[in-house]
Structure formats: C-alpha cells, structure tokens
Fold these 2 entries.
Entry 1:
Amino acid sequence: MTGRRWGAAAAAAALTLTPAALHGQALRGDADVRFQSLEFERYGEDASVDLVRAAPVVATLDITAWGFGIENLSLHLRTSATDDLADENAWPVTQPPLRLVEGYAEYSLPQLTVRAGRTPLHTRLGYETFDGGRVDVRPHGTPLTVSAFGGWSLARGSTLPVTSPDVNPLGEFRPDQRGWLVGGILGIVQGPVRGSVVYRREVDPEASKLTSKFVGASASVRLPEGFSLSGGADYDIGFEEWGSADAQLLWAGRVAERSVSAAAGVRRYRPRFDLWSIWGAFSPVPYTEATGRASVSPINGLRLRGSAARFTYGDPETSSPLVSFEEDGWRWTAGAGWAGFSDWAFDVDFGAEFGPGASSTHARASAAWRPVEDVRAGAWAARGTRPLEYRIDDAIVRSLGVDLEVDLGRGLRVDGAVGYYDEERTGGVERSFDHWHLSVGLRYGFGTGADRAQLHPAILAIPERPDP
Amino acid sequence: MKRSLGGLLFAVVAAAGATGVATGMSRAHGNDEAFDHAQHAELFPSCLACHRGVVEARASVFPDPAGCANCHDGSDDLEPVEWEPRDGPRATNLRFEHREHVREVAREGDQEPLLCVECHAPEAAPWMTVQRAVVASCFDCHNLGPEHLAAADDTCATCHTDLADSPTLQLEQVAGFEAPPSHAEAGFAFEHGDVTDATCAICHARDFCVQCHVNAPDVEQIASLKPDERSLAIAAELPAPASHASSAFLSNHGREARESSETCAVCHTASSCTTCHVGEPELAAFLPTEGPGRGSGARIDRTPPPSHDQAFLTAHGSEAAARPETCAGCHVRSDCTECHRPGAPTGTGFHPADFMTRHPAAAYARETSCADCHATAEFCTSCHAEAGLTASDILTSSFHDGQAAFSVGHGAAARRDLETCTSCHVERDCMVCHSSTGGRGINPHGPDFDAEKLRRTNPQACTACHGREIPGAP
C-alpha cells in the first residue's frame, strides 16, 4: 500500500470515527461510507483490450456545529475521502484522496448573514463553492436581500482549484494561478413575485485579465388558479453573448378531484467556457428547445406522467459535402408509478431521444417493497439502446439489479445493491462492457436530533418529545 | 304501561340484575351456556329462592352450588354441576343495584311492587321463561325515548355511571360500546365540541379525547373528564376536514393557519408543520408539541406536490433559482447538495442506476448541464481516458467511424456539441490543425467571431494558437 493509499485509508477512518468524538448537544452530522466494485473492458494500447477493475470507496462527512458561546454562530463542514482500492485506479475523482467540499463559519441574524471559508453559492449561474466570504443583508422593512461575495475560485464542477493537475489529467492549457472571484446578488420577494439578479466576475490575478464575467437573472410569479410562471437568462459579458435562458409555465391542481400537473416551456442552452480556454473561440452554437410535460393521478395510488421536447441547433455556419449531421432532435418519456398497496410500489418508465451525436431508447421497471418501516427492498430491470451518430457502435444494454436499505436505528442506515449489465454491441470494435456492479453503503446520522438526519439545526429549537 | 319512578327503577334494577345473573352464570360455568331456567320450572316457585341477594343485603344473588348438588349428585341421570357463583361485583356501568331499587320502590308505597317477571320474562310467558331485561323496558318505564342509543344526550346518566367511575367494566366491554347515531352524522367529528351536556363521560374518558386533541389540556370539557386508559379501547378517528381536500389548500393553508391558529391547534402539533417545513421551524411556533396529556394529532405524510413529478427533477432549476424561499418551505440545503455538489462520484440517486448506458445521448443534448456537478476534465475525461476513449497523438477517424470523412467535416458537429468534444479531447488535439503557429492554420472561428473583442478581453486564449502574433494586435 502506498503512502498516498495509507493517507486515504486514514482519512476515511477519521471521517468514520469522528462522529463519536464530536458527539454532543451542539452538533449534528451525517457520515456516509460507500464501497463499489465493478469490472469493465477498455481499449489498451495497440488496440488490445484490457480488463479493468475499479473498487472505489468514498467516505463523506457532513457536520453542522453550533453553541460555541457565541449565539447565532455555526460551523458547517462537508468533506470526502475517496480511494480506488483496485490497482488500476480507474474510478474518476479519486485524487486527491481527501477533499473539502464545503467548510465555512456562519453568523446569522434576522437581517444579516455572514459566511467565511469554503462557501457555497447557488445562483442562476449554477452551484459552486469558493474560498472566501459572503455577506447577506436583509434591510428591515424591505422585500430585498443584498448579497456580496468574494474570494478565490475553484474549477467549475470541482472541489479543486483550476491549477490542480487532478482536474486536468490530459494537460489542457490552464492558468497558473487561481482566479479572484467577486460578485453580488440582489433578491426581491414581493408577494407572489420573487426574483434575483446575480453578477459574477472572475479575474486571473497573474495576467490581470478577465477569466469570466456573467450576469444572470431569474424570476417567478405565482399566478391564480394554481399557475406559476418562472424563467431566467444569463449573459456572458466576457464573450458579449447571451448564454442560456428558459421560461416555464406550470400548473398544478385538481381536475374532477384528481391531482394533475402540467408544464410547458422553452429553453435555450449555450455552453460556457472560460476566457483562457480556446474553446470559446470555436464559435459554439446554442440550441433552442420547446418542452412540455404532464402528470395525472387518475386513481388513488397511480400516477401517470409524460414529457416531450423538441430542440433545434443554431446554424454552425460550416459544412462539408462529404458528411451530413443531424441538426435537431427530440425526446419523449412516459411513465407510471403505482403506490396503491401499503407495502409495495411499482414504477415503469419508457423514453426515447434522438438528436445530434447520440440517440437512445430505454425502458425501465422497478418494484420496491417495504414490509416494515425500517426495511426497503427493491429490484429493477432495464433495457436500452444507444446508437451514436458519429461512429459504428450501436449497443443494446440490458441491466437488472436488486437493492436493499435497512434502518438499523440510532441513526444508522445500511444499504446495498447488486446489478448486472449485459451489453451487446453491433459494429465497430468488439468490446464487452458486461459487468457486475456491487455497491454497499453505511450511513450514520449523529448528534442532536440524529434520528432526523436531513433536518436543519434550527429545527432543534422545537423541544424533543417528552418522555412518556 | 305507566309506572311511578319506584316501579320504573325496580324494573331497571331487575333488568340489571338479570343481566348480572346471566353474566355471572355464564362465567361461573366457564362458558357461554346460561342456566336453563325453563328446565327447572317445576322446581322453583319463586325467583328469590335462588336469587335472594337481589333483595337482601347479606344474601347471595346466586344460589349456593351445594344446593344444586342436592339434586345433581350424579345419580338418576343428574350429573354433577361444576360452577362457581360470581365472586365480586358485576362488570357493568349500570348505575343501580337491585336492593337499592327495591328500597326505592318500597318508598313509593302507593305502587304495587314489581315482579321479576315483568322485566325478565316476556309478557304472559310460562313460569321460568327468563330472559335478560331489555333496555326497551327501562326506556318504557323512564320515558326516555324509543331507542337506547337515540335517547337524548342528557338522559344517559339516568341508568349509567361514567366510564371512569365504573371500575369493574372490562376492556372488551368498552370496545363493544355501540356508537349513538349522532356520531355517524356528517360533521360530528368537527362539531362534537358543541355538545355541552356532560354525557361523553359515560362512554369516554380523557384518554380517548387525547388521541386526537392536541389541545386537550386547554379544553375545559376535556380537562374536566377523568383519565381512564380503558377509553382507548374505542379507537378515535381523525378525518381531515373538507377544506383540506380543496385544490387550493396546499398553497393557502399558511394564510389560513395564521388567521385561525387555534383551529389548527385542535388537531395539529408542531411536528405537523415541520414534517414538511423542515427548514422553517418558526412556522410551527404557534402550535404545541407532543407530550403527555396531548395527542399526537393528525399525522402528516410528507408527499411532494403534484408539480414534483419525475421530469421536475431536471426541470426545477429556474424555479428553484428564482424562488429558493419556496423550496426552503419543505427542503433544507442538504437536500440540494445531495446532487448539487461538485465532484460527486458516488452516485447518490440523481441518475437512475442504468443511466451510464444512455448517458451519451443525455450529454450530447444537455438535458441537464453536466458541468454543474462534474468538471468535464476531471470527471468525464478521466473516465473516458480509462476506457480508452480519449484521443492521443495524431487524430484519425478511427473512433468516429460512423462517417468516413468525419475528420474533414467535423466542424458542424463540434460547434453543436463542443462540450462533448471536450470530454475526450484537449486543446492540443484541435491545434494539430487549427493552430497558426504549430498546426496547419485552419481557421476554426465562426463568421460572427469578434477577434478584437476577445483579444481585448483576454488575449491568453489567442496566444495558444497565434503565439505572440495575434492578428489585429497593436
């Protein structure tokens, strides 16, 4: 075992054992350890095929602590330790073995919230974390919330800075220093109308040049008769181009005493790239999508659902007489869920999508059995095809599996799943992806209110049930 | 039949006594077989020969088993009888005793004393045709009404004692209480508090009310009742009011709760709110918490609103971003970070178990933004690299073998799905052809590409392909 491996093992053990040491009135947390095992074939060098085995173990620890003698102060920590116990190290996101997802102190008053540390930020522009601080001010008597944030950025979708080699395994061009991130949010809640505007600017401190600059807005209004309208858009100031946007009209209510919901919307999607990357200079085009979905419960316990979408890409303004590619696509899904029996639930789901690059059809059925409150057993089977437009490699994949969850009490929950994937390929390179996939997890909720692992610590203000 | 109060009471006492006798007999036999009075009609000229205790304090209500054995001695086909008379008081909530009733009748003076047969035998029946006294007889004498359970609420106490004052009553007897017709009337569950006559206590005790009433300690009628766990033998049902079935209730119940919080507090504890409003416990501050003396109240199942169907999982983004407060009504941050957290490799349930088999189509069409949770290079590229899907060295059409000339005409595909390209390719793969310094100088920019704007904003990307000779640079 390498030193790095020992470090990962020690970190995983520490994450698992920490709850016992930290158990106390002013602490709530959740620890999760999950092991998976699977094998698959990969292309080796000189077109050979190798059998690869992955055995990742992932431990996560989520802690909220308060009561340090300073009222309204709390600490929040979410961290993970990951290692691939198989020698191939084939599982993604295993390096570095110990990661800090979130870790910040929060001081909150009715009109002010201050956070400092690895701080989460969830806006129209997506979810991200950064190392810095955030201040939220809610002026008394106004419907406004004004926020300002700033610090050092992390790579998009990662817990690591963009300078880390672990987020750049193939050696892409990257800045040498982490970006400086600043921004602000203006939110308003006025009756049925809610909205927010976010401004986000990131600068490369070494070159003193802009890395990215966006402004985004989102709003929603709750209309009479069960309708609501929501939407948003973002603008890439750096590239001076509109980014993604969407609008959706939703209705939920009852028809003939049956629960019904329906939604229709439009969406535009344009990929986002930082200004230090050359990808943005390749002139990616957006696509526009019209969507609709509905669900209805015709009888108690049964819910039917369906959705459809049609999307069209913008003109890439380049073509070749030698090739022709799909320019638009569609997708639909239909499903039904039955929960009319007290112990059983069933669900079936069908879907198909067709578009540039890839298509797929899938059918899936699952059943869940809960004989007692603390035990849930399930089974699922699925079949799918995934023809790819750009290569001769159509695959039919059949998969089935079973899973089990048991609540052992005292905040301890164990779950496991075993699945088998049977892949049948036609054309292209003969390569098997048949494999078993094993997953075992152990979850432990601890601290005050440990039996309510998902609850906010503020709920602890409600007295516990007195002893009978 | 018109009688004085004493006569009526005697009838009732007789009825009660007969009930007790019958009960005692059957229990004494150890089975449900009652004593066959008719078979003994020629032996006993008087009821009091065996049941003297009905009128005499120190006498037994039931005959001495030894008396039975005088005849049932095992001879002449008379087998011995094994039974024991009831020991202790009868299990009943009837208010009267036979002896007391006899005294009441005697005090009346001007009435003929009632005979046992007037309550315990059908009219004009042969001697020793004995039956249990029927309630109708009581009602007839007491002018209480046509039927037992349909009597006025304030008349129950004429014959019955409160449940809490009837210690001999057994649990199964309480469970067998028949509900009056009034209890089946529409709205009774929500209007029974208007009943001011204290008749509930005949069948119920405080424990019964506490099954539903969260506000039990605050309600005078309930607080005045005595506690008695036997009342739990009658299971209370707590139906939802009609208003709760309204389509608008889900969205309006907050306002209604603020306007009539005391009404909510009848059936709901704070946990009713926090079952869904897990992140807003302050909303429940006006409601009591569960505890001794209070019911657990209505049970709330945390069910998602109709809008939260399967597709909502991937379509909630804009609404959540615009109205996080609405989400916060039922969700806490950890609900979001189960999926919305960077570098989540464990698969916590966002994607179905078989998603990997069809993720190419989902990724190409960006049903959801993969990059919100996965760093393309870190997550996609590293996995594709392990699967042997990433490019290396000179690009060929070997992977994109769907069309022989893919490399030549790949531009349109790349501009549509550039993010997907980056899951296997890095910039240098493209620069083999598209760099003006080390490549073949093929221009990758679209017609609307504004080189000056990009150079002005950040020239770093320009230098990757153009080196120091950025077109248009001063």
Entry 2:
Amino acid sequence: MRIVVDFGLCKGHGVCMEEAPTVFQVSRDGTLTLLIAEPPPELRSKVEAAVKYCPTEALSLHDE
Amino acid sequence: MQSAHADTRSPSRPIPRLSGGLPWVGHLVPFVRTAVELLERARAECGDVAAFDVGPKRMVLLTGPKASEAFFRSPDEVLSPSEAYRMMEPVFGKDVVYDAPPAKMAEQFSMLLPCLQDRRMRSYGQVIAKEVLRSVEGWGDEGVLDMYEYTKVLTNFTSSTCLLGREFREEMTEEFAQIYSDLERGITPLAFLNAHLPIPSFRKRDRARVRLVELITRIIVDRRRTRSEGEDFLQILMETKYKSGEPLSEHEITGLLLAAMFAGHHTSAVTAAWMMLELARSPALYERVRSEIFRVHGADGPVTYASLREVPVTEGCVKETLRLHPPLFMLMRVAMRDWEYDGYVFPKGTHLLVSPTVTHRMPDLFREPDRFDPDRFGPGREEDKRPFAFQVFGGGSHKCLGNAFALLQIKTIFAILMRRFEFSSYGDPLLPDFHGVVIGPKQPCRVRYRRISAEEGERVASASRDAGAAAAPMTAAGQAMAGRCPFTGARGGEA
C-alpha cells in the first residue's frame, strides 16, 4: 500500500492529518508532509478515510 | 473585421471559431444578455475548444476534462486569474486578492486556510445547526415560503457568524442583506468589460462596499479595545501576519472577509434553494433523503460533523444539485504569454474560460446529463471521480478553499429542516435566473411546508431505522465514528 500525493491539488486543509495523524502532517501554513509513504496494513482504514475525505482529492492509494 | 485577428499564427492549428459574430462587437450582446446559452452553443458547434470575441476581447471556451485540466493546472504566471477577475476589484478592494501581485495574492489566500482547517469545521457545523433551528422559530405549523428568499437570509446568518463572528450576527439587520444584494448586482458581464462605468448599479455597489467596510472596521476596533476574541475567520485574520512580520491592515482584513463571504454566501444560498426545489418536485427522492436523515440522526438527535459523513443519498443530492446548477457558470484566466494546448496556440492576452455548467452536461461524462440523479455518484458509477469532470469548485491551485464547508453547510441545513418540516412543491416553474454571476432559481420559487409533530417524527425515525437495518449494515467508517464524541466527532479527550 503506497500513498501518492498530488501536490498540484493539495491545499493543506488538514483533513488527512485528523484521520491518520501518524501518516500525514500538515503545518499551519498548509504544507503537507508524508510521514509514512508506505503505511502498514493496520493503518489502512485510517488512510482510506483520509483519501476519501480529502476535500481536494489530492490523495490516492496504490496497491502494488 | 474578424479576420483582423490572426487566429492561425504558425504553428497553431486553426482554432474552431463560433459562428455568428458581428463586426467589431463579436458576440458581445449575447455574452452580456445570455452568456450561458452562448457558451452552450459554442461547445455544441466547436467542441472542446471554441473561440469567440466579446468586443475587443478574444475569448476561448475550454470544455471537457482534458481541456479543463490544462486550464486548471497552468501556473498563474501563464494563465492569470488576477487579470481575469479585475472586475472584482471594486468589491474586494485595492491590493486585495486578485488585485494584489501574484505572490501577495497567494499569501493572502493561504491566510484563509487556517480558518477552514478540519478542527474549525467542527465548530462551524454547530454554529450552522443553531442558525437553522433559529431560522424556523416563527414558522408555525404550515405555510408557504420562497425557498431562495429563505436560504439567502439563512446563509447570510451562517456565513457571517462563521466568518465575522457573533457581534456581527447580532448587530446585523436587513441592512446587511441589502448590502450583499447591491454588491452582487454590481457583478455582471458588463462589469467584466468595464467595472467602473458610471451606471446606477455600479454606484450602488460602491456605496454598499463603503458601508460594509465601516461595519467591519467598527467590530475590529471594538475587539481590539475590549480584548475580546471570537471563534471566527475575523479573529484568525486579526492575528495573522505576512511572512515579513507585517500584520494585515484593516482594509486587507475587510477585503479578505469580503472575498470569503462572497465566495461562500450566495453560492450556498442558491445551492440549498435549488436542492430543496429539486427534491420537492421528486417525492420519491425526497423520501429517500428524509429517510436517510431520520435513520442516521433519529427524530431529534444532534447533527454533527461526523454524522453528516454517513449520508450518501443526501450528499449525492448536494453534488447533483451542484452539477446541474453550478453557482458559477464560468471561470476565467488571461494568457500572460502565448499558451499552447493540444496543438493550438492561444496568443498572449486571450481570455480562457472553463464552464462547469457546460461540462457538467456532457453525456459522455454524465449519463443522461439533464436528469437529476444522485445515484450517479454512488458505488459502481462514481461519475464525479473522473478528474476535472465535476468542476463546480474549480480545480488545481485555485480550487475553492471552502468546498468542505459548503458541503457541511448544505447537509446540515437539510438534516435539520427535513426532520422538523415536510416540504412539497408549490408548482412554480423551476428556471434559472441569469441576472448576476451567481445563478439561482428564478423567483418566485415557493414550497409548502408542514410541521412534523414529535410523534410523527418518532414514527418516521423508527420506520427508517427498520428499512435501513434491512438494507445496509453499518459501514467501516460508521463504526470508526462510533468511538468518537457524539457532538463534535472528535476522538477521546479532543473535544
């Protein structure tokens, strides 16, 4: 499971950080840092919620 | 006369050009009078790329996801929103957002972001819920109301409370609604040609803005003097500084709040009105939405940020309303240098347009595009997931900052209204009113309402729970929510 961020779309709303704070970090000025690009399976449901609720649809999840 | 413009400079392919333009003025008259029809005709006649002239300005309409993506992904230095939205300068103010240099504009927009981040949204949800309850206090057991008139007032209160704060909400009278109306009526296709023509509607617009600056400035001064704080955009902007360390001036705060209010107020008002009118004329769909709302919230349970994530039918209806009735029918950029797309070269100075209204009705993107069908966003279809097809909030770096706020607001309004009253069609024809840039339903657009008694509410809630239990087990997300604070949706001690 690999997270891909489209930084051309991300605006830093921080919804992903609320859903999965160990994976996504968004600063006050809206800069997103991916703390874990390939999160372990136990984080899947949280990461899926982050992808689903991202208001700019900047996140996608890929299974290799 | 048209041939004086060389559309076919090498190495561009010839740009498809809309027929029927008059010498000198091009399509000026239909652009000012019936812009949406003009854009629809341009798409039908020319396809994804359609050129036409409006007076001296050369315009190109880009429709469909591919052309729209090229538009949305171009950086400001190439396709400039500032040049395109000069007409907003009299409303937002000198040196504010679109009128500021690009770097300053970007910094100003980023100052609005903390106002819209996830945690704040939860408190806005509660503010909106309270305002909806307050709005129906005087309704009695049954009656008739003009839906758009109602949602204009309601979203005026919700936006102003979330953005400007409580003082403004309590001090505000009809004067504020009038100010907004005057501002909006000053934003017409004519303003795009010259925003400073000496005509009555522009003079009214300018007077309205001066008055609004006075009202907002008075509150800023009061808060600083009494050291009181609010849970609103205004407070955040009062505390925000540029990277240089310089705080925002009162003029800039006012301008940014105006930009945010203008972006959020009428757009939400028309969307809530369109949605109720669409549901009122489709009783079966109305019943599905109502049943879902009762099932998730019970007859009188709280409406929360978390609970509103579990209403796919309602959410589908909001999206479908936005697809068929986008508040903004076109978005614009100006080419700062020659811009190339798909073999076409658009000369510097060309106005590029994207039209959600036109793209949203393309049958290869949206099946039976003229039909109101909220299930098109559901599992298996997900017609909104194709990138840059569903473009009501724009896209790319200038995508609407308030889209999550907008969805939250509309869902909250319906979750509260539909459990307290039953709405039905009054029979007014449902037509768009193209007067102004935000497109609402033509008035009168009335609905009948009837109060739902406590016993009746319990009956509906119980029936919808039974139906829901039979139809759909709780989703994974729903289970995750169950561990959260029922009021704010926050986990653990976060509330």
